[in-house]
Each structure stands twice: as C-alpha cells, then as structure tokens.
Design a protein that fits this description.
- Helix 1 runs parallel beside helix 5 (about 125-140).
- The chain is about 40% helix and about 20% strand.
- Strands 1-4 form a two-stranded parallel sheet.
- It is an alpha/beta fold and about 190 residues long.
- The relative contact order is 0.20.
- The longest helix has 22 residues, at about 90-110.
Length: about 190
C-alpha cells in the first residue's frame, strides 16, 4: 500500500509520529513501548494528545524532557553504540541507525568531514532521539508501506542554531531534500526539520 505524506505547512519527526498514530491507532502503544525501552534519563516521557488548529482536530506527539536533564549524545559514533545496545527489536534499531546515518551524511556534507565524524547538535537532543526512534517504530510496524510525499515546503529566512544563524532550509536539511519534490510557499521560517 502507498501512503502519501502531505507536508502542507511543514514536516518534522513529531508531526510524522502524530500523523502515523492518528492513522494507525495501534502504533501509539508500539511507539510508547519503544521509548520506554530506550535508556532515556528519568522523567523523559512521550505525550500523545489532540489539539484544534484552524478549527480542525489534529493528533499531537511530544517527548517531554524535564528541565535540567541536559542533552543527549552529540557524537554519531556514541549515539550509534547507544542505539545498538538498547533492548529494542533489531528492525527498529536498523531503521533508527539508517535514519541517523542519513543525518550523519547530511551533517558531514555541511561540515566537510567524514560521516563517521559527524557531530549532532540539536539532532542528538533527547527529544530528537525520541523522534527518530518513534519514526523507526512506525517504519518497522508498516514494512509493506511505500511512502510518497507531496512537494515539501522549503521556507525562507534564517534559523538560529548551534552554529549561529543559518539560511532556511539549513545546509543539512537542504542536503536531505536533494531529489525530493519541493515548493516555495512564500512563508518565512523553518518549514522542514
């Protein structure tokens, strides 16, 4: 079966998880189990909910990280080891590592270093790790799905990062968008993360 993602306003890991768990309600329990099995710091928990935006009902997902917990692992080699050691099904670990390998290649391209030496800033934060693990769980649970996307909005302007102010889309995001259909919707701000 084919599933079409329609990133009308924007797309990010938490939005993908929210949309998938809205379409397949059984995935909420699977994502929750995955996140409970990973060694996140105490107090880190997933939260699923609903909201109304512009009069429409929408599913939400966020990963709550208590204040003062700190950041996750920023080095790709360390993060890969943490994922490999986690008591998770192999298929979820493979998908998570595969997603992070794409991110490592994008970061390596932006910094002109080897992918093995990639350093994640925001991508190594606990909520980003949860987004990757949640997305990996969705992909593992739906192995026969062919994922397609409508044009992805690029956004414009700048975004503040660990490297300072960068153009939108940021260099690593632009690298990941190569070959995908994209559109300029004329809106200012970061539209794809």
């Amino acid at each position: 079966a084919a599933v079409r993602l329609d990133p009308l306003g924007r797309i990010a890991g938490d939005m993908f998880i929210a949309a998938a768990t809205d379409a397949w309600s059984s995935l909420e329990a699977a994502v929750t189990r995955t996140l409970a099995a990973f060694p996140f710091p105490p107090g880190c928990v997933p939260r699923f909910g609903r909201t109304r935006k512009a009069g429409l009902d929408a599913r939400t997902f966020e990963f709550h990280v208590p204040p003062g917990v700190g950041h996750g692992t920023a080095e790709w080699s360390n993060l890969r080891e943490e994922l490999a050691r986690a008591p998770l099904p192999d298929v979820i670990v493979r998908h998570a590592i595969g997603l992070y390998e794409l991110l490592a290649q994008a970061e390596a391209s932006a910094h002109a270093v080897a992918a093995e030496s990639a350093h994640f800033h925001e991508l190594g934060d606990w909520d980003s790790v949860a987004d990757i693990l949640g997305a990996a769980t969705v992909l593992a649970a739906l192995p026969d799905v062919i994922w397609r996307t409508q044009p992805v909005p690029l956004g414009r302007g700048t975004v503040r990062t660990a490297h300072g102010e960068l153009p939108v889309p940021a260099p690593a995001a632009a690298w990941l968008l190569r070959g995908l259909p994209c559109t300029d919707d004329g809106l200012v701000g970061e539209r794809v993360t």
